[in-house]
Amino acid sequence: MNKEHRLPSPIANPENKAFLEAAQNDQLVLKHCNACNQAHYYPRTICPHCGSNDTSWIKSEGLGEIYSYTVMRRGVEVPFAMAYVRLNEGISILTHLTNCDFDAIRVGQKVKVVFQETQDGQKTHLFEPV
Ligand SMILES: [Zn+2]
Predict the structure, then answer these.
(1) What are the ChsH2 rubredoxin-like zinc ribbon domain coordinates in residue numbering (predicted)?
(2) At residue 1, does pLDDT exceed 60?
C-alpha cells in the first residue's frame, strides 16, 4: 500500500463544533449570516462581513472549483496538495486535494467534497476532481 499524507486533526472549539460534527456524517456545513445574507468560512459566531451575531448553519452542496493550489513535495514524508476551493456558495475554503494526479491540477478545475479520517480517526473535508 502506498503511503498517504497523514491529515492533521482539526481542533474543536465552540465555534466550529457543529462544523466538525457534520463532517463525521460526510456533510459540509457553512455559517451563514442572516443580517447581510452572506456565508463565511472558517465558522465564526460573529459574521466577518458585517459584525452581526445573527448567524446560522447552512448545508453546502460541496461543489466548487480550484482558485489556487500548491503541491508540497520537498521536506515532507509524502507529497500532498492543498488548495483554496471557491465553493458554489461564493466563499473560499482551504483544503487538501485528494484522488488526483498532482501534475494535472489546474486553476478553475471543478471539484467536490469528500471526507477522510485524520490522524486521530475523526473525519475532515477534502476535495477531489469531479
Ligand atoms: Zn453579516
Answers:
(1) 21-52
(2) no
Q: What is the dotted CATH code of the domain comprising 17-129?
A: 2.40.50.840
The CA 46 to ligand 1 mean position distance, Å, reads 8
pLDDT of residue 2: 52
**DSSP-derived secondary structure letter, 32:** E
Count of CB atoms within 10 A of residue 127's CB? 29
In angstroms, what is the span from residue 12 Cα to ligand 1's centroid?
Answer: 23
Question: How far is ligand 1, taken at its centre, from the CA of residue 83, in Å?
Answer: 25
Can you tell me which residue has the cell 442572516? 34
pLDDT tens-digit readout, 41-93: 999 999 999 999 999 999 999 999 999 999 999 998 899 999 999 999 999 99
Report the SS3 class of residue 30. strand
Hey, where are the domains in the chain?
17-129
